[in-house]
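Priority: medium. Attachment 1 of 2:
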């Protein structure tokens, strides 16, 4: 039988240092996905081309599925969204309705704010614990998904708070009740969030991708940009929401009848 030799003189960083490096790389990759996204999660649902299909409807169904399942065990994955994203879903649906009725897309229709461009998911990584002030919480890891091309970022379970690497944590209350509450701990305080079953958005995203509507959007965007000067192109690109609405104006605006005046 061959002897198995343990080699101890290889120069290598500690496991803790290696994990810290991997976590930093994961955060950078997720940030890169955010910066490169062509459309955001709300806008993707608009590309279904059906006014009856809205972001709020999709995520409302996802939240109901989460509440009905009552499963917040370690390893479970959820889509994360909040009231600001739902409000933007309403603004976007209203804007598309106005464009369909013949209005010209304008900045007056926009109200996106500082929302993220990517779809965010979390995975629970601990059983419920209790903080020093008797608040129940769990740790989690997160990742971003670029909905325009399907790129998925790596999981990252920590963040930097005042120069210190800390675990991502989520305060929870009443997870086994009909109205569970979740609050994410952020640098500015606690932020209410909703957890949605990912299968709802997955189904919508897969249907839209297979329809070819994303390619139609990209082709229309290219044509729109080709007619602009460098400064005009830069100005339009700096307002992603307005750019999306202008492209949708070319895709869904009513076609003038043959007897109408130009």
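Attachment 2 of 2:
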């Amino acid at each position: 039988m061959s002897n198995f030799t343990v080699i101890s003189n290889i120069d290598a960083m500690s496991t803790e240092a290696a994990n810290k490096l991997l976590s930093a790389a994961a955060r950078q990759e997720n940030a890169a996905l955010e910066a490169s996204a062509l459309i955001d999660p709300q806008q993707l649902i608009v590309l279904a081309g059906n006014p009856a299909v809205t972001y709020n409807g999709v995520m409302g169904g996802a939240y109901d599925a989460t509440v009905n399942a009552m499963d917040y065990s370690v390893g479970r994955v959820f889509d994360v969204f909040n009231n600001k994203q739902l409000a933007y879903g309403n603004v976007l649906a209203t804007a598309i309705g106005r464009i369909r009725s013949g209005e010209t897309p304008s900045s007056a229709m926009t109200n996106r704010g500082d929302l993220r461009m990517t779809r965010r998911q979390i995975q629970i990584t601990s059983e419920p614990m209790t903080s020093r002030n008797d608040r129940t919480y769990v740790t989690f890891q997160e990742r971003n998904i670029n909905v325009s091309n399907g790129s998925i970022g790596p999981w990252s379970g920590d963040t930097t708070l005042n120069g210190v690497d800390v675990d991502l944590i989520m305060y929870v209350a009443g997870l086994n009740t009909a109205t569970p509450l979740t609050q994410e701990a952020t640098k500015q305080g606690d932020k209410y969030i909703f957890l949605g079953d990912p299968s709802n958005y997955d189904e919508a995203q897969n249907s839209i991708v297979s329809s070819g509507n994303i390619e139609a959007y990209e082709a229309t965007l290219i044509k729109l940009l080709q007619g602009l000067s460098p400064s005009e192109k830069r100005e339009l690109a700096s307002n992603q929401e307005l750019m999306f609405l202008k492209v949708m104006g070319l895709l869904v605006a009513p076609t003038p009848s043959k007897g109408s005046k130009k």
